[in-house]
């Protein structure tokens, strides 16, 4: 009996290498061909990054491919089984492995962000120091000018209330009578000396 090639089993696993397997059944026994990125990969070939192993036990054809290097972005991997009665294929889209250093990359980026932010803040602060010093000096100059104005006699005269033109009432003087004898005694003392 003739039977077209049919894919009956496939699997892929990823540990240190990507390992994919395909099992085809058909009469006559199908041949298996791997294609990577549209180019055929030879059976039982050993490349530095690709290794293909095929085993045929009629009516079964099994083939395994292992990739030791990360594939390029969106590389297609095709496992094709064919005999004169038909062709059957499995297409796998390969994506690069996520880096195991993703948390380290995140932390590195976070630390770089903090460092660059601190540098930017420091530069901004140092650029603003002259403006802050100028502002403080202006405030101090205004305060000093106000204190000097209070102490200046010309300004104080202007600030004092003006005197009224009304004459003040004369103060009453008190006269205390002294005895004539006291006056004479003082005069006698002055004459003797």
TrEMBL record:
Superkingdom, taxonomy of origin: Eukaryota
Keyword Transmembrane among record annotations: yes
UniProtKB keywords: Membrane, Transmembrane, Transmembrane helix
Keyword Transmembrane helix: yes
Subcellular location: Membrane
Membrane topology: Single-pass membrane protein
Residue numbers spanned by region Disordered: 157-193
Ranges that cross the membrane: 110-133
Basic and acidic residues: bias regions: 182-193
Xref: PANTHER family: RIKEN CDNA 4931406B18 GENE, SIALIC ACID BINDING IMMUNOGLOBULIN-LIKE LECTIN
Name used for this protein in its record: SIGLEC family like 1
């Amino acid at each position: 009996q003739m039977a077209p090639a049919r894919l009956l089993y496939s699997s892929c696993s990823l540990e240190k290498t990507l390992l994919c397997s395909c099992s085809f059944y058909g009469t006559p026994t199908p041949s298996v061909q791997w294609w990577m990125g549209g180019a055929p990969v030879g059976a039982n070939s050993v490349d530095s990054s690709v290794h293909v192993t095929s085993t045929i036990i009629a009516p079964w054809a099994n083939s395994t491919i292992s990739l030791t290097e990360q594939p390029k972005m969106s590389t297609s991997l095709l496992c094709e089984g064919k005999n004169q009665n038909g062709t059957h294929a499995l297409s796998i889209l390969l994506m690069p492995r996520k880096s195991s250093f993703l948390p380290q990359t995140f932390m590195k980026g976070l630390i770089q962000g903090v460092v660059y932010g601190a540098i930017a803040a420091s530069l901004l602060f140092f650029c603003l120091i002259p403006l802050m010093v100028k502002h403080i000096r202006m405030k101090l100059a205004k305060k000093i000018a106000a204190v000097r104005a209070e102490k200046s006699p010309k300004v104080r005269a202007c600030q004092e209330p003006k005197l009224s033109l009304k004459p003040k009432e004369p103060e009453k003087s008190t006269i205390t009578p002294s005895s004539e004898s006291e006056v004479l005694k003082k005069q006698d003392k002055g004459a003797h000396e």
